[in-house]
Amino acid sequence: MHRNMMQRMMGGALPPGIDPALLPEPDSAGARILQYYCVQCHNLPGPGMHTAAGWPRVLGRMNMRMRMMGGMMGGMMGVVAPSRVELDILLDYLQKHAQEPIDAAKYPDLNTQAGQAFSTSCVQCHALPDPRQHTAQEWPAVVGRMRGHEAAMGKFVPDKTTTAEIIDFLRRHGRTRE
After folding, report:
1. Which of 30, 35, 42, 115 could form a disulfide with 110 if both were Cys (CB 3.0 to 4.6 A apart)?
2. Beta bridge partners of 175
């Protein structure tokens, strides 16, 4: 019910969620709290949607909305807000697994065609990620998932040639095996 309402409020552009199995530390208290509270109104967000510095503001805004919706009409909206302890656990989890923004000084090839394609595509939705967040082998799947998100959100989706350039850029700079 709340997701449908949020979908209408967002003009049909509710961000797609992630599979709970893809959450880091999926059995942790933070992941469980994220899954319990956040999906009341929208799809499951991943901690990588925002940077560690950005999560306090986002979580504060979401908590205010949950409290407001939980109090509407004597709680008839059915939305439950987390306790202070749960909020602290959730914020710690989100910040621990947050998007690691890129240090542009470490990547002089950001001004190449591939680097610019990477920048233009990714910043449509979040901070430009550090390519070392994932291994070279992981990047193609991550980029594929992001292309699906871009399409679902009505964002610009790069063509296959540009996508291949982005993947090549990320693989070149991705971590080697864990």
Report:
1. 115
2. 135
